[in-house]
Design brief:
This protein is α+β, with helices and mostly antiparallel strands. The chain folds into two domains: about 10-170, no CATH class; about 190-245, no CATH class. Helices cover about 25% and strands about 25% of the residues. The chain has seven helices and eleven strands. The strands form three sheets. It has a seven-stranded mixed β-sheet. Strand 10 (about 235) and strand 11 form a beta hairpin. The N and C termini lie far apart (about 110 Å).
Length: about 250
């Protein structure tokens, strides 16, 4: 007798941003950073479709595997770390300043975490890097690591934070925001400020009185300005100098 399990095959496709480009990120160079240029990733974009997608379960600390071991024996290297190879990449391409792909996940647990927006991703590749941090040749893809993002981790779960903040799963539903009320009431201080602004415009005064000062403060400031003018005197247009106010004169 032959046992038959009618589970069929499971696949879940997710659009992902594998790598943000045209940016400096921390990396192994003398300067401590690496520039991820479009010209370094575009020529070998198709090669990412042939690398394994590794999943680090929530109970393990995510680390990148040895690249040589992954190239020689991806399945054995994944098992040794407690990881699983959960799928592959399709249609990897560079668009604008990012490298995107369709990630086909064949692992229900990983696909569920991806749908819940809980997964982070990190690329693993080889490249020749100059001391200043510039990549000198097209990169050679090795693997893609998928893990629980620390921002979405539950209590007690191991998690990771990707080196590239732009790398993410893109098929997440938009966050629903509560509807704004149709009528928004303004507090009394805001209404008073608007009324004072309108009065200042009508009177030809600068708006800073109402924007930064209360009514009382504005009046005090104006009174101080008048006293300053009185102390300085009146400008004589014929001599260009200030003189004392006469008994019948006052500040303009």
């Amino acid at each position: 007798m032959t046992a038959i399990n009618n589970t069929g095959s499971f696949q879940s496709e997710h659009e992902v941003v594998l790598q943000g480009l045209s940016q400096w990120l921390p990396g192994p160079s003398e300067s401590g950073k690496v520039f991820y240029g479009v010209d370094n990733f575009a020529p070998s974009a198709d090669a990412w479709n042939r690398v394994p997608v590794l999943f680090c379960p929530p109970g393990l600390k995510p680390i990148h595997p040895d690249h040589g071991a992954m190239a020689r024996d991806p399945e054995g290297t994944a098992r040794a770390l407690g990881y699983r190879i959960i799928g592959r990449l399709n249609n990897t391409r560079v668009t604008g300043s990012q490298m995107v792909a369709d990630a086909v996940l064949e692992d229900p647990h990983a696909a569920q975490l991806a749908k819940a927006n809980r997964l982070g991703i990190s690329t693993g590749f080889d490249a020749e890097i100059g001391p200043e941090g510039r990549i000198r040749s097209p990169v050679s893809p090795n693997h893609l690591l998928v893990f629980v993002n620390c921002k979405k981790a539950a209590a007690g779960e191991h998690c990771g934070t990707g080196n590239d903040p732009r790398a993410a799963f893109n098929n997440i539903a938009p966050v629903e925001h509560p509807p704004m009320p149709r009528h928004v009431s303004k507090d009394l201080s805001e209404m008073e400020a608007e009324q004072q602004r309108a009065r200042d415009v009508r009177n030809g005064r600068p708006l800073e009185h109402s924007m930064y000062l209360s009514n009382e403060q504005a009046q005090e400031r104006e009174a101080a300005a008048v006293e300053t003018i009185k102390a300085r005197g009146k400008l004589d247009p014929f001599t260009g100098t200030f003189r004392d106010f006469r008994s019948c004169e006052g500040p303009d």
